[in-house]
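Standup notes
- DV: blocked on the single-chain target, sequence here:
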Amino acid sequence: MGTTATALSLLPWGRVDRGEAVEKVTVLVQNEVVRLDPERLGTLYAQLDEAGAEDILGRAMEELAVRLTCGERYFRQGRFDDLRKVARSVAAIADQIGMHMLARVARDVAICIERLDDNGLAATFARLLRIGERSLTAVWDIRDLSV
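- DV (later): unblocked, structure below
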């Protein structure tokens, strides 16, 4: 049997929260496989020459990285109208280059904001950041293989 002790924490608004300290904490590992749409990438390379497709992919990846960073800042600052705009733009860019999972999760973030679903937004936005990072890494890995 584990022992518990009373833990006190001061909440931001000055109230004291009394809870129990626990000995075991389970950490949930979020591990989702990110897939890129090879048909979309193939179409991009077919429509443009290799240099043009590489240029488009590079710019899109840079833009996604910037927007995800801005989105993280807006989330922390509570600027949810701005975050909704960022999420919509991330979805549009991701769809263009075959990152359909990233696009779907970005649209889910916008929906949570529109529905004023704070808990859903927190979970979905955290997922957006994870999927975004993995998607960008996947594209870099593909680009490294083609070089």
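- Follow-up: The chain is about 65% helix and 10% strand.
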